[in-house]
Design brief:
Length: 97
């Protein structure tokens, strides 16, 4: 299978940056480990976009392996693109800002 192009929406990038900063405040270097875990999951999505479970409508999710986060994304098969909409803590209320 051909690798899909990955588009990271600004909301998802903001999620990742805020979480990385929070983890670094807890322990120096932990933010970098978090970002590496997210990037590893994104690489899996790029190689096989259908790996994630469909959670609602056409949004799929895949969990990170080391941190309690899920990456939410949609697939455009025609354009061979994956659009990542959020990187979401699994214990966060989805209605919180």
């Amino acid at each position: 299978m051909k690798n899909f192009k990955v588009i990271l929406l600004s909301e998802a990038l903001n999620d990742m940056e805020a979480s990385s900063k929070w983890y670094d405040e807890q322990q120096n270097g932990l933010g970098k480990r978090f970002v590496a875990d997210v990037r590893s999951s994104i690489s899996e999505i790029r190689q096989n976009p259908f790996i994630g479970s469909v959670k609602y409508m056409e949004i799929r999710t895949i969990s990170c392996s080391k941190f309690p986060y899920a990456i939410h994304y949609s697939i455009d098969e025609v354009k061979e693109e994956v659009v990542i909409t959020s990187i979401f803590h699994l214990h966060r209320n989805p209605f919180w800002e």
